[in-house]
Amino acid sequence: MSDKKSARLILEDGTTFTGYSFGAETATTGEVVFNTAMTGYPESLTDPSYSGQILVSTYPLVGNYGVPQKESEYGLLKFFESDRIHVKGLVISDYSFEYSHWNAGESLGEWLRENGVPAVWGIDTRQLTKIIRERGVMLGKIVVEGSAEPAAFDDPNLRNLAAEVSTPQVETYGDGPMKIVLVDCGCKYNIIRCLLSRGATVIRVPWDYDFTALDYDGVMLSNGPGDPQQCTATISNIKKAMALGKPIFGICLGNQLLSIAAGATTFKLKYGHRSHNQPALMVGTNKAVITSQNHGFAVNTDTLGPDWEPYFVNLNDGTSEGIRHKRLPFFSVQFHPEASGGPVDTEFLFDDFIRNIRDHAGSKR
Ligand SMILES: NC(=O)CC[C@H](N)C(=O)O
């Protein structure tokens, strides 16, 4: 880049960091969150759960492997988690102007500019992260030199973000024997891939769609952005689905929504969990799994109904990492078994879900 425009990150407490622009030359505002993963920016940037958020990478070197080519598989972009960038802005320390990877189609900066997303490099993101960890998550603005500073800070959690990113219509993928309804509150494509590769037909429905009248074998509740309490229509459809008894599996926002439908309350964490190395213990065992995470809210399992029990618990801070029904085939996890990016250690949970569907179908015969 020949012109080196400066760019500022302004936090709601007035703290300001100044670096340089390498994305779209525009201003933005949203919730500033940090991720400590070392890789996975194409996946994170296209994860709809980051909607409304300005993403900070603590790992300093970003952009060195470019951005994957836009190849399709199952009618979905193969190397991305949705069709576009969902973060409102990106803040990093050291941008790699040179990139190299067998599958790279363009640079990170080019991709951000095409998507109209501002990005700042040259910021001490570890210092910034220490501030967020001390004071808790904050709203922020990115202002690139020459762009007009937004008048106010935008708090995305006050809106129903799932409604903004969900599919507008029912879409079907694959033609496997098992019919799985995917309630799309902002789903990552790898959830669809993990179901298709296990022989499912995936019927992706909007966040507020009453799917209970459909012919289906199991329900997948997707991840998604924002405060779970906003998804009231999804919660009432989940309650209806629970009465039908067919297997249910929830991921991240899906875990929060299933938990609320099961009587629990949710709360906002001080600064969330966003990384590829969060340890979770499977309750009642000595088995710990390393998980990929991206969430700002959590479930208070003390408030769960009597038919439910904790499934996983976070070994760093003791917060809930999942719940399960004591008798019926309903379970959900706060982490991401579909990974993308991050470790694939918990992908076995998709196999468990498929087994639940087979067992349930068998018991009906
Ligand atoms: N990845 C997700 O599904 C995130 C869930 C929810 N929006 C949270 O921040 O906690």
Report what the structure shows.
- With 365 residues, this protein is α/β, with parallel strands linked by helices.
- The chain is built from 8 helices and 23 strands.
- The protein folds into 2 domains: 4-156, Carbamoyl-phosphate synthase small subunit, N-terminal domain (Glucose Oxidase, domain 1), CATH 3.50.30; 159-362, 3-Layer(aba) Sandwich (Rossmann fold), CATH 3.40.50.880.
- It has helices at 41-46, 108-114, 125-135, 161-165, 189-196, 232-244, 253-261, 348-364, and strands spanning 6-11, 16-21, 28-35, 53-57, 61-62, 67-68, 72-73, 76-77, 89-91, 94-95, 104-106, 119-121, 138-144, 171-173, 178-184, 200-206, 218-221, 248-251, 265-282, 288-300, 308-314, 320-325, 330-333.
- The protein has a 10-stranded mixed beta sheet, sandwiched between helices. Strands 1-2-12-9-4-3-13 form a 7-stranded mixed barrel.
- Strand 21 and strand 22 form a beta hairpin.
- Helix 6 (232-244) packs across helix 7 (253-261).
- The longest helix has 17 residues, at 348-364.
- The model has no long low-confidence stretch (mean pLDDT 97).
- The protein binds glutamine.
- The site of glutamine has 11 residues, from strand 20.
Count of individual beta strands: 23
Q: Share of helix among residues?
A: 10-25%
Look at the structure and name the CATH superfamily of the largest domain: Class I glutamine amidotransferase (GATase) domain
CATH fold assignment of the largest domain = Rossmann fold
Low-confidence stretches: none
Report the CATH C-level class of the largest domain.
Answer: Alpha Beta
In DSSP terms (H or I, runs of 4 or more residues), the helix count works out at 8
The set of bound ligands, ions and cofactors reads:
glutamine
Q: What global shape is seen?
A: globular
* Rg over alpha carbons: 20 Å
Task: Supply the helix-strand structural class.
Answer: alpha/beta
In the CATH hierarchy, the architecture of the largest domain is: 3-Layer(aba) Sandwich
Largest sheet: 10 strands, mixed
Percent of residues in β-strands:
25-35%
